[in-house]
Each structure stands twice: as C-alpha cells, then as structure tokens.
Amino acid sequence: MSTDALDAQMQMRSSTTLQVYVVQMTVAASTPAGTRSEHGSDPQRPVNCDVADNVTTSVPKANQMTITSSTPVTAQSNTATEAVLGVFERYLFVWVLLTMLLGILIGATAPSVADGLGKAAVGDVSIPLAILLWLMIFPMLLRVDFPAVKYVVLHPKGVLLTSLVNFAIQPFFVFGGSWLFFKVFYTNALPVREANDYLAGSVLLASAPCTAMVFVWSRLCNGDPGYTLVQVAVNDLTMLATYVPTVVLLLGLSDVSMPWTTVIYSVLAYVAVPLLIAASVRVFTIQRYGEAWFMRYVVNPLERITAPALVATVLLIFIYQGEKIAEQPTHVLLILVPMTLHSYVIWAVTLTGAYWLKLPFRIAGPASMIATSSFFELAVAVALSVYGPDSPVTLAAVVGVLMEVPVMLSLVQGVKRFKPYFDQFESNV
C-alpha cells in the first residue's frame, strides 16, 4: 500500500473516532432526561455510548448536528437560538443589567451590607465570591475533552488561525486599543489611576479566550462541532501556560501592579485545580456509565447553576461598587465602548484570515466566534483575587460580562451573512 493511501486511511480512522466524540455529545444534549433508552426502560440506567457503526443514524434527525467535516449543519432559526441558549441565558444581558442596578442601589443606600459581606472572608479571599466563582467555572470545565487534542491534525488551519488570534494578537491589540481610549481619548473624563485600572480589567479579559460558551456560539452559527471540541481543548492547555506571563507583561507596560504569585495562585485556584478535578470526574464517569449518561445527568444539571451563580456574583460585586458607581455613573459606558469595538474588530480580522486561508464556513464561522469570545469568569476571578471586589479593575472585568452575550449574538447573525463567500471552500479541510 502506498504512503498516500496509508495517510488517507489513518485520517479516515481518526475522523471516524472524532465523529463518535461529537455524536456522544449531540445525543446527550438532544435527548431529554427521562426518555426511554434503547438499552432498557429505566431512564436512569447508564447508557453505553460506544457508537462506531452507523453513527449518523443514531441521532434523531430533528436534532442532528454536523458529525463529519463534509456535512453542513441545518440552519437554525431564532426559535432554535432560544432553545440552545434557554430563556435565562438568551437574556443574560437583561438579568446582568438589572442585577447591576440592584447592586448599585443596595451599595449606595445601604453600605453596611458591603461591610458585612467583607467580614465573610479568609485573608483577602471573600468566601461567598469564591464559592460562586467555582459554581460558575466548574460545570463548564466538565465539557472540556482533552483527548480531542490529538485530532488537531484534522483542522490544522482553523486551530492555527484561532490560536494565533487568541494568544498572539488579541491581548496586544486590546491593550493598545484600551490604552488609546483610557489614556488618550478619556484624558479629561477619567483620573489617571482609574484609567490604568480599567485598562488592567480589559487586559484580563482579552488574555483569556472562552472555553464554554463557544460551544453555543459554534452551534448557533452552524459550525463544525468536531473543530470546536478540538479548539476548546487547545485553548485550555495553552491558556494555562500563557495567561500569567501575558497579563503580567502587558500590565507592567501600563504601570499597573500585578504580582506574579497572586496571579499564579488565582489561575491555579480557578482554572488548574477545577480543570483537573473536572477532567478526573469526566474520565471516571464516562468509563463507568458512558458519555450520554455523563452529559445528561452530570453536566446538564450542573450547568443550570452557572448563569444564576454569575448573576449572584455580579450582584455582590456591584454592592461593593455601589457608592462609587453612583458617584460616577458614566464610567460603565466609557468601559463598554472600547470593549465592544475590540470585539467586532477581532471578529472581522479572524473572519478575514479564514477567507485568506480558504477555510470552509463550518470552520470559519466558529473560528471567528471562538477568537472573539472571552473567558470572563477567569478574568473576574483574577480581578477579585488580586484587587478585591471594590476595585475598578474588577468593575471593568464585570462590564465584560454585560457586553458578552448581546455582542456575540449579533456576531452570530453577522457571520451567517458571509456564508455565501465561503461556500466555494466547502471541499477544503
């Protein structure tokens, strides 16, 4: 057998195995709890997910997603968007905004509440906020599938493009743009100290690529779930090595104090440790019960906690920030403007790069979403650990939460409009 034939055979086997990963996640996500399993009448009975033959026919047609690199995903309507996100997540912007207003009201009219919350701490760590941060982060990390990294060879251009934007372009571009806004355009509107702090919060956000919501954005823009799975695993592993040095380097250039040890402890406490525990839980549970059972009875129930925990975290932070924001209400808007602009520019740059690389839309679409979205939970956790809940740095990081959902939903609709330009590359890998 020739070398080319062997390579083709190996790639086909790898692709089939990756299809199994994607089908497992799809079946788990699309089958409601309590549905009778083909393996028995007990809905709680563990389901074997090892589907190697006829993988496409094992997924209900109404919910079928892309499971090969050549099959387009069915277009989704606004109704499908709401089904994927859920009412709470779809209108997360509204809940966060209302929570911010409530927190400001409480903080401005009853500052003793913030004082009382400050006493529930061990050292400089707020116990309520630490618990809420874990509740936000841990359920999302259960979805990360590190064995999928070995399938990076199936999507080399997409992974290379998104990783380049995430780690080599976005942090430095956002730093430069934020410096321009906070240090030049806002000179007469912001004191120097607060301008530096808002710049720091922006850098914390830009240096952490998203690892959870990107599954949603990818599905909404009809992306290849296999590529998304691989890219998220690559992002998490890379971020563990690059986040601390990138943040310390950029903030050092802007005269903002960022101690190495505190940042390292924060990344360990809110990324490395929960990621290790989540990976262990994932491996043990899937080996024992199968992936469909794991997704349906572990991941899905825990993920329902994430959004409420996020809203509760925002409430506590804005109770701390209430008095300050009441005195300077325009600061939130001043932070939002450059953050929103940066998101649209990064999205456009990534989509342009995808076109130049001749990537098919099923890769180009989610690549632009993944490059744009941020792991705002990590940014908030680091800001809280290093600067505290009443810091302007933390305020800037939380404003990123306010921006994330509406901006990303608008980009999902925007990227679909460019699909015809990528159709000519559909046969490319």
Description of the structure:
By secondary structure, the protein is mainly alpha-helical. It has 2 domains: 3-63, no CATH class; 78-425, Na+/H+ antiporter like fold, CATH 1.20.1530.20. The chain has 16 helices and 2 strands. β1 (121-122) and β2 (125-126) form a beta hairpin. α6 runs parallel beside α9 (225-253), α12 (331-356) packs antiparallel against α13 (361-372) and α14 packs antiparallel against α15. The chain is globular and about 60 Å long. The protein starts with a helix and ends in a 7-residue tail after the last helix.
Could you tell me the radius of gyration in angstroms? 22 Å
Q: Give a short account of the largest sheet.
A: 2 strands, antiparallel
* Widest β-sheet, arrangement of strands: 1-2
Q: What is the count of structural domains? A: 2
Q: What is the molecular shape?
A: globular
Task: Provide mean pLDDT, rounded.
Answer: 79
N-to-C CA distance: 24 Å
Binned, the helix content reads: over 70%
